[in-house]
Give the backbone structure.
Amino acid sequence: MHALTDLEDGAILRVVAERGGQPFQARQILHWIWKHGVERFDQMRNVPAKLREALASDHVMRATSIAKVDDANDGTKKLLLGLHDGETVECVIIPDGERTTLCISTQVGCPVGCVFCASGMFGVRRNLTAGEIAEQVLVAKQQLGTGRRLTNLVVMGMGEPMLNLDNLLPALQRIHDPDGIDMGARRITVSTSGYPRQMERFAAADPSWNLAVSLHAANDELRSKLVPTATSPVRDIVAAAHRYFGQKGREVTYEVVLLEGINDRPEDAVALVSTLASMPCTVNLIPWNPVAEIAASKGLRRPAVGRVDAFAEALRNGGLKVTVRRQRGADRSAACGQLRLRQLTGT
């Protein structure tokens, strides 16, 4: 069965018309799905029962279902979502004061293969559809506690967003649509490991979303060790990001997952300053969230707080704006892909 969340507006109009419905009823159905986030056809109270029954005969409301929920002591909530073909993906709700951020995925697995990340341990299985991407917001909203609302969205969970633009861009439109989920473009950030040609296409899309680049190292040789599939030189990635700033006026964030003794050394800070100091940007330092399977096989370590602080200070002394992300959900498979990894390995 097809999920209604996967249908564009024109397709919904056709489906409704084929079942004897009117255009205004198609708009009502879209409103119920995206504005109210209903999960069942009988919840569409102003849609005739006959039309609801006809739709339910060969469509489902949503393409995803919750397979598992992990609640961390700090309020972070990680959701494992089951898909129609038996695959799973993750999204994460991160409360922080009055701010509540949702991190969503764009692919089942990941093709990038960053050496420190659990998401790509089994490669990429397939792209998520536009509906499967946008649905993560609907599912997350239903998981919020009383008085909580989603304030920010980050597309930096499982997968490489730039390699699924055909589905990501319409999903973002759904999420942004004032008649639907209605999240402002300035509250939405898309993260990429760096694909200059796709970044240009992303820059051409409207409206203007925020862009983050997972750089990890400014040295090409080191970066290729951390991101084995990286083929574009750092200078080309940074140039594409700078063009994005020029077109959109949105300052780019560069993300660096810090690994002790590998990319948190003084010379690594010098390279970042040399590469980024002339750019309007922020560097977001992310001390590695350890994944036991990766730590054991590759000997990676999370840097101590003192090393992280020293690295951040070196960047600031070089003229860069720096933030340091604190670890969230540490007691409940904090890193991207860990909950799915546990499900795949049965651990």
About this structure: The CA atoms of residues 218 and 272 lie 5 Å apart. The first helix runs from residue 9 to 18. The radius of gyration is 21 Å. The mean pLDDT is 92.
